[in-house]
Amino acid sequence: MAETNELLRQAYAAFNRRDVDGALELMTPDVRWPKASEGGFVVGKDEIRAYWKRQWQEFDPNVEPVEMIEREDGSVHVRVHQVVKSLYGDLLFNGEVVHVFTLHDGLISAMELGDGVSSAPSRAFTHSS
């Protein structure tokens, strides 16, 4: 579990630095990722790269892991403290959410939002325009 925790911490740190390549090298080529700010999913590193670049043009998210729990099915549930701001610095969300990771051969192969509603935008990104 220590290696998994370190891998996930590295992924969060790379995301928070906007180091797309650093985060993507910790993922499988066919990784499945939720589009938390848009709803739905993307598959593959190129789609994640494009999605994150769109997201960062509208929002300034920061996500810090608080607790990681490995489940019997091999998934890892990560409780995170998430702060989402507008590009103007307005606070849009400050709270905790859960991310559920699946790993394959030591790399992230999927992430889901823990609220079970990954097809809709996360509450962390719902805001009024």
Summarize the structure in words.
- This protein is α+β, with helices and mostly antiparallel strands.
- The chain has one domain: Nuclear Transport Factor 2, Chain: A.
- The chain has three helices and six strands, in the order ααββαββββ.
- It has a six-stranded mixed sheet with strand order 2-1-6-5-4-3, covered by helices on one side.
- The chain is globular.
- The mean pLDDT is 90.
In short:
The chain is α+β, with helices and mostly antiparallel strands.
Average residue pLDDT: 90
CATH architecture tag: Roll
**What composes the largest sheet?**
6 strands, mixed
Structural class given helices, strands, pairing? alpha+beta
Q: Provide the β-strand percentage band.
A: 35-45%
Tally of separate domains: 1
Which sequence of strands runs across the widest sheet? 2-1-6-5-4-3
DSSP helix fraction: 25-40%
Low-confidence stretches: none
How does the SSE layout of this entry go?
Elements: H1 2-17, H2 20-24, E1 27-34, E2 41-43, H3 45-56, E3 59-70, E4 76-86, E5 91-104, E6 107-113
Parallel strand pairs: 1-6
Antiparallel strand pairs: 1-2, 3-4, 4-5, 5-6
Task: Describe this protein with a few key phrases.
Nuclear Transport Factor 2, Chain: A, 6-stranded mixed β-sheet, single chain, 129 residues, 6 strands, alpha+beta
